[in-house]
Design brief:
This protein has a single domain, classed as NagB/RpiA/CoA transferase-like (Rossmann fold, 3-Layer(aba) Sandwich), CATH 3.40.50. A hairpin with a 4-residue loop joins strand 5 and strand 6. It is of the alpha/beta class. It is built from 8 helices and 10 strands. The two termini are about 15 Å apart.
Length: about 210
């Protein structure tokens, strides 16, 4: 990443953190993936039950491997024969690892989901939701964040999941009603009723989609 972009991101991250604080959420800044991993692990108590949705950003900074191999009880849905049971177990977890499809400069978090297990856990259930968010996902306002989620994150995830949707072919949202659509539920997190429940680690890297 260009150093001028990194400098801009450092300044912008402080605005995002201030915005999160005004919304009863906590923000943290990490210059690198390694710093992000260290910060994230400092926020997860030893022995905590930890689970996640499809959080590529957490994998990219090494957090998933660290939790799986650390002093935590990792609820790994990949190891559950009953996927529904794993998803339901997430609602009673101590920590839910997540990312954002986009977020605004003043701290609003935007996510789109297909099965809704991820967005429903973000909204309610786990005692803490820990977001790992690359600065590449920060947008000026809610409208532009929604556009990013629909036209960047969703088509990229459609490629990753290999589903049969128009956006997989066109690269942008077609507002489809395909049976394979992954844009079933939209969640805009603008405030946390429970102080300290939502924590966001901003990373000065292009991570996730």
């Amino acid at each position: 990443m260009d150093e001028n972009v990194r400098k801009r991101n450092r300044i912008l991250a402080q605005r995002v953190i201030k915005g999160l604080a005004s919304r009863n959420m906590e923000g943290f800044y990490a210059e690198t993936r390694e710093e992000a991993l260290k910060t994230a692990l400092s926020l997860i108590p030893e022995g905590a039950s930890v689970t996640m949705g499809g959080c590529t950003s957490a994998r990219e900074i090494g957090l998933v491997d660290a939790v799986r191999n650390g002093s935590y009880r990792f609820i790994d849905r990949d190891n559950y024969a009953d996927k529904r049971a794993a998803m339901l177990a997430a609602y009673d977890a101590d920590v839910f690892l997540a990312s954002a499809n986009a977020m605004t400069e003043d701290g609003v978090i935007v996510n789109i989901d297909g099965n809704a297990n991820r967005v429903s856990a973000i909204a309610q259930g786990p005692r803490m939701v820990l977001f790992i968010v690359g600065m590449n996902k920060v947008c000026p306002d809610t409208d532009s964040a929604l556009k990013r989620a629909r036209n960047v994150a969703a088509p990229t995830n459609a490629q990753r999941f290999d589903v049969d949707t128009p956006c997989k072919k066109t690269g942008s949202c077609m507002d489809c009603k395909s049976p394979d659509t992954i844009c079933c539920q939209f969640l805009i997190t603008r405030f946390s009723r429970h102080k300290g429940r939502i924590k966001v680690v901003l990373v000065n890297e292009a991570i996730g989609f």
